[in-house]
């Protein structure tokens, strides 16, 4: 069952010679890989579709990705921190857009933390606005 998950993950990061540690796959252990500019955090779980691997990958040269790989190889995109912030020339609208941007990224950051994905890069920290106060 886990072979398809590991193969799908390993194929995604093959260009950078990044693979899931075999021991973590066999033991379904959460962990992280930090190599070639990537920080990839992962955890195993089970839902109505069977076993899966969730991972969150960040690299300073690309957008973050949050992905679930099921045992059958199906890949599902999950919410990730957005680096795109809409702006407006209207100050009120601009404030509203900024508030919504940080609120959504903070919601995603809480989701990541609940999974145990607690290693944040400076870009993740800034995109989540963790240095700002917002209302939920």
Structural commentary:
By secondary structure, this protein is α+β, with helices and mostly antiparallel strands. It has helices spanning about 1-10, 20-25, 90-115, 120-125; strands at about 30-35, 40-45, 50-60, 60-70, 75-80. The protein has a 5-stranded antiparallel β-sheet, covered by helices on one side. Strand 2 and strand 3 (about 50-60) form a beta hairpin. The longest helix is centred in the last third of the chain and has 24 residues, at about 90-115. The N and C termini lie far apart (about 40 Å). The mean pLDDT is about 90.
What is the secondary structure topology, with strand pairs?
Layout: H1 2-12, H2 22-27, E1 31-35, E2 38-47, E3 50-59, E4 62-70, E5 75-78, H3 91-114, H4 122-127
Antiparallel strand pairs: 1-2, 2-3, 3-4, 4-5
- Helix-strand makeup class: alpha+beta
Q: Give the strand content.
A: 25-35%
Report Rg.
17 Å
What would the average pLDDT be, to the nearest integer?
92
**Total helical segments:** 4
What topology, given as strand order, has the largest sheet? 1-2-3-4-5
Order of helices and strands: HHEEEEEHH
* Overall helicity: 25-40%
- How many strands, what sense, and barrel or not for the largest sheet? 5 strands, antiparallel
Distance between the termini: 40 Å
- How many strands appear in the DSSP assignment? 5
Low-confidence stretches: none
Shape summary = elongated
